[in-house]
Design goal:
It is built from eight helices and 14 strands. By secondary structure, it is an alpha/beta fold. α5 packs across α7. It is globular. About 40% of the residues are buried.
Length: about 260
């Protein structure tokens, strides 16, 4: 019996994501983000979303589009990044933001996918990450409306460590370079970033694939994410597969040498 997880379109893949859903979204900056699935979700209209991602895109691109259209109410991320609207909404009290150390965020997602409820890490001990008081939401007048609570700290092997809860989301949206019809994924270079832990954390994981191949075409040793974590696959068109913007273009004059 064949397993085929490919769905007709991105619109079909996100059609049942409801208001108030939590999403784990792959990518780092603009590298490896699920452009097409984000656009489809924007068109679909779900709002009051909680988004777990390394960052929230940039102004006018990626998750930044959902942010600009006020579809996101809460973000769990490691930094604000190059998104001025993200920073504006946060400081204006329009958005709840739970800033989390980057490695801790990746492990919280991975642990959620692995069925681990919580874990201890030395990252954040002696700071507001562990002691509480990080502003998650502001009042419009700039005062803190909601702050993080203190976390449990214990000593293991002579090192103090803070307890961090894992993350499991309703849906995960990720992008892969090559996916077979059973959902086994291969990511290209740095696009692997947060896509693997994000995919693991979702109860329903949707992958947009630059190339879809038949089952058996990917060597098992080359699989970065097993298909057991994937429920839906969207095959991108060549134009969609080539949509890979650069977050910040920096160039220098070409040096001309003479012999």
């Amino acid at each position: 019996m064949s397993i085929d997880k490919v769905v007709p379109s991105a619109a079909d893949a996100v059609a049942d994501i409801g208001p108030g859903s939590s999403l784990a979204v792959g990518g780092f900056g603009l590298v490896g983000i699920p452009w097409t699935l984000i656009s489809a979700l924007l068109e679909q209209g779900a709002d009051d979303l909680t988004v777990v991602s390394n960052n929230c895109g940039v102004d006018g691109a990626g998750l930044g589009l959902l942010l600009e259209h006020r579809r996101i109410s809460r973000v769990i991320a490691s930094y604000v990044g190059e998104n001025k609207e993200f920073g504006r909404q946060y400081l204006a009290g329009e958005l709840t933001v739970e800033l989390t150390p980057q490695g801790t965020l990746a492990e919280r997602l991975r642990a959620g996918g692995a069925g681990i409820g919580a874990f201890y890490t030395p990252t954040g001990v002696g700071t507001m990450v562990a002691e509480g008081g990080l502003p998650w939401c502001y009042h419009p007048d700039g005062t803190v409306a909601l702050a993080s609570e203190a976390k449990e700290v214990r000593t293991f092997h002579g090192t103090e460590m803070v307890l961090e809860e894992s993350i499991v989301t309703d849906v995960a949206l990720v992008r892969a370079a090559k996916v077979d019809r059973a959902g086994n994924c291969v990511f290209h270079s740095s696009a692997r970033n947060f896509n693997v832990p994000a995919a693991m954390a979702g109860r329903l994981t949707v992958v947009e694939a630059e190339h879809v191949v038949e089952i058996g075409d990917i060597d098992p040793d080359d699989v970065h994410l097993p298909g057991v974590f994937v429920q839906r696959v969207v095959e991108l068109t060549p134009a969609q597969a080539n949509e890979k913007d650069i977050e910040k273009r920096t160039t220098r004059p070409r040096e001309v040498t003479t012999s």
